[in-house]
Amino acid sequence: MFEKTRPYNDLPKLSSIKNIENKKLLKACIEATAELSTLNRALKTLINPNIILDTLALQEAKVSSEIENIVTTNDDIYRRIAFDEKTPAAKEVVDYKDALFLGVGELRSKDLISAADINEINMLINTGKKGYRKNLAEGSNHTQIGTTVNGKMEEVLYTPPHGLDIINDLIKDLLGFMYYSDKYEIDNLIKIAMAHYQFEAIHPFYDGNGRTGRILNILFLMYYKYIDYPVLYLSGYIVRNKTEYYDLLMGVTKEGDWHKFIDYMLNGIIETSKKTVTLIDNITKCYDNWSEKLVNKEIKIAKEFADSKKVLEMTFEKVYITISDLTNTSEEFAGFSRESASNYLKKLVKYGLLEQEESKEDKRKKIYKNIELLKIIEKD
Known about the structure:
The protein has 380 residues and is mostly helical. The chain has helices at 23-44, 50-67, 74-83, 88-110, 115-125, 164-179, 188-202, 209-223, 235-240, 242-255, 258-295, 305-318, 338-351, 371-379, and strands spanning 145-149, 152-158, 320-321, 354-358, 366-370. The strands form two sheets. It has a three-stranded antiparallel sheet with strand order 3-5-4, with helices on both faces. A two-stranded antiparallel sheet has the order 1-2. The longest helix is centred in the C-terminal third of the chain and has 38 residues, at 258-295. It is elongated and about 70 Å long. The protein starts with 22 loop residues before the first helix and ends with a helix.
């Protein structure tokens, strides 16, 4: 039985929940599947998907962190990457992106995400105590979720399950529910929505549960082959509908009202898929426009056309680029001296694609910002 001030150790396991699907949800699943398919096709038309992956991942990291009141700017994020400038909020956003790509790497190497992987993902995000919440001594304060004023709890709304054995058991059940498709014959998008609620309700970590849960959304979409790349991010949708999101989470907890929450999540997938396709289309058009200028010799970056194209691609992959990005030891950019790289980037400043800035901490360090790409991202 749920009591908001007591650990919800009776949280129902996903494996115990029956008769979730109905006509409305299945109809939404069909529409969401179609929109995801359109998004995946849009990605496959790109000559180089890396042009958008890093950019979209950082935007997701930024918005997802805003849900947790970690607010920063694109400028601070990219400066953190390029110059390692010590802005705490920007560091947390970059850590989120690293955690996301860690999860993607594990999924691709093993074709699943394990409990150990989830822990590793959280360790990159979590700024406090690491690992699952441990058993507390009798009389100790439990982890609680509620409204706060000036950093102090004003009203407790939820107390997650307590006890390491209980948390381990609930996580094991969640993963079993996701992976044993022959045992749980439910539409996979509905399972992803249910798993999102369950993970947030378990609240297994001391910190970073929300961000870890949103990364799992992406990884499960990839696991079920809805998308080939990590590009479908629901954080923007949640930010725009934040009050409804938390109300519906509590609706499941208090009343077992799964249908409204699942419908909310499916609508989020539909809306976000459409927005992401539009964003990809706008970025692609911008990139193609500059590529066409190269082909038509309206602009010339390097002596060799192939080198010019590589430099242009990198400016769309990174948004903010440094000379070092073009002089690394990878095969792709072998042979670019610092002098050549500097000249190439200065030409793109002259042509109006890039804007040059200096490090706040070391004026000798330069950064080149793709202002057209940034306008597209920030408009979205």
